[in-house]
């Protein structure tokens, strides 16, 4: 009845119906009733909505293209004559054929300049036996809006792969062919809405806002509308003045998190940072001395040790290395410290550093010749002591 027909937006609408073996003849009759009822709700006409019907199983048949009928009665008559094809479920092939043979100007599709939405409604109860993903993607890229109607055992994943976004507006499911007419009113709301945003032809990337018979685009939080008034760009949440981070701001898809420089930790407020005690036990790798330095640290060594090239471990210093001691003649290494000694014929001065030549002539006198042996023995023992010291 024309009074219930949709006077709103003209469409180039193609029904693709599955008539494979799993669809029983009485169920296929229900599909045809659904098509007839859909035709009744549409404002059908050459300048209004044009309708084509395709039938598929393992082969694809264009029952009638967009250019053939421009009145409801003839269309419904043609629908009533459609016979099921039986056999497989080549959904991908059917969509491919729609692009190649139905959505062409010679077959009645209006040119792109007319801005008439191209819409496909696929009705299936099975799982495609061919690759539907790439075909559906290229159809959507070509500007074809795809609605997927699943019945009974239909594979939901395949419907999701086929349908246009947003999926919850483009996928319909019914338990049986017996209740498929239920969908007529849902499609009627979709196609007849003055609400351009429900049609999916608005071109907004993120949010479509209806405004009487018009619409405008908007963006999710953290995004801004680009100059084209359709697409959105993520706001740089780390731009100066946009965040509250003390040290480092890390942008995170339309929001942000704060972080700290090395040697600092994030405070519980998740914004400010505190310098860590880098010399706390277990935090540093110094073998002997750790020197904390505003968020970092350096290593040192105890007296008598030097820092190795790894800047962490220490080795006992060679206390007798040139320039490290102040012995005039012989430096004798201890564990950490050193002592001084003199070469043979010299004796250590009271300063424990310098040496003087030993005065041997005064030790032996002619008067005390009898003590000579004892003195020589003493000298020998002192000399060997000194030698022993100097070779340590």
Automatic annotation (TrEMBL):
GO terms for cellular component: extracellular matrix; extracellular region. It comes from the Eukaryota. SUPFAM superfamilies: EGF/Laminin (SSF57196), Growth factor receptor domain (SSF57184), vWA-like (SSF53300). Its main location: secreted. PROSITE patterns: EGF_2, VWFA. Gene3D superfamilies: 1.20.5.30, Laminin, von Willebrand factor, type A domain. Keywords: Coiled coil, Disulfide bond, EGF-like domain, Repeat, Secreted, Signal. It is found in: Secreted. Residues 12-187 form the VWFA domain. The keyword Signal applies. InterPro entries: cEGF, ECM_Assembly_Org, EGF, EGF-like_Ca-bd_dom, Growth_fac_rcpt_cys_sf, Matrilin_CC_sf, Matrilin_CC_trimer, NOTCH1_EGF-like. GO terms for molecular function: calcium ion binding. The keyword Signal applies. Major component of the extracellular matrix of cartilage and may play a role in the formation of extracellular filamentous networks. PANTHER family: COLLAGEN ALPHA (PTHR24020), MATRILIN-3 (PTHR24020:SF12). This is Matrilin-3. It comes from Anthoscopus minutus (Southern penduline-tit). The gene is Matn3.
């Amino acid at each position: 009845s024309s009074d219930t027909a949709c006077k709103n937006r003209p469409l180039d609408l193609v029904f693709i119906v599955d008539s494979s073996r799993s669809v029983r003849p009485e169920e296929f009759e229900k599909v045809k009733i659904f098509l007839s009822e859909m035709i009744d709700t549409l404002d059908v006409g050459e300048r209004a909505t044009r309708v084509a019907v395709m039938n598929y199983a393992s082969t694809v048949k264009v029952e009638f293209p967009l250019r053939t009928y421009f009145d409801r009665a003839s269309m419904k008559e043609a629908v009533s004559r459609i016979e099921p094809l039986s056999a497989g479920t080549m959904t991908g092939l059917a969509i491919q054929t729609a692009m190649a043979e139905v959505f062409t100007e010679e077959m009645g599709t209006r040119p792109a300049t007319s801005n008439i939405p191209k819409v496909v409604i696929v009705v299936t109860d099975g799982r495609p036996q061919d690759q539907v993903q790439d075909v559906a993607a290229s159809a959507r890229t070509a500007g074809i809006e795809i609605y997927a109607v699943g019945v009974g055992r239909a594979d939901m994943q395949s419907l999701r792969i086929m349908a246009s976004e947003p999926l919850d507006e483009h996928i319909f499911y019914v338990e049986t062919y017996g209740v498929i007419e239920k969908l007529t009113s849902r499609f009627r709301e979709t196609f007849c809405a003055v609400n351009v945003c429900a049609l999916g032809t608005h071109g907004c990337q993120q949010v479509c806002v209806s405004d009487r018979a018009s619409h405008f685009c908007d963006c999710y939080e953290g995004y801004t509308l680009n100059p084209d008034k359709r697409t959105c760009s993520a706001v740089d949440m780390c731009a100066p003045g946009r965040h509250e981070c003390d040290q480092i701001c890390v942008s995170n898809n339309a929001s942000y998190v704060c972080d700290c420089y090395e040697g600092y930790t994030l405070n519980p407020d998740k914004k400010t940072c505190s310098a860590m005690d880098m010399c706390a036990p277990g935090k540093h790798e110094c073998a002997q001395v750790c020197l904390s330095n505003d968020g970092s640290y350096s290593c040192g060594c105890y007296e008598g040790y030097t820092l190795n090239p790894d800047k962490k471990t220490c080795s006992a210093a060679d206390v007798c290395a040139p320039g490290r001691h102040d012995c005039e003649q012989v430096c004798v290494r201890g564990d950490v410290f050193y002592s001084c000694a003199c070469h043979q014929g010299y004796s250590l001065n009271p300063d424990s550093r310098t040496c003087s030549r030993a005065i041997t002539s005064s030790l032996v006198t002619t008067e005390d010749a009898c003590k000579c042996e004892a003195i020589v023995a003493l000298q020998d023992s002192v000399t060997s002591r000194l030698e022993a010291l100097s070779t340590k």
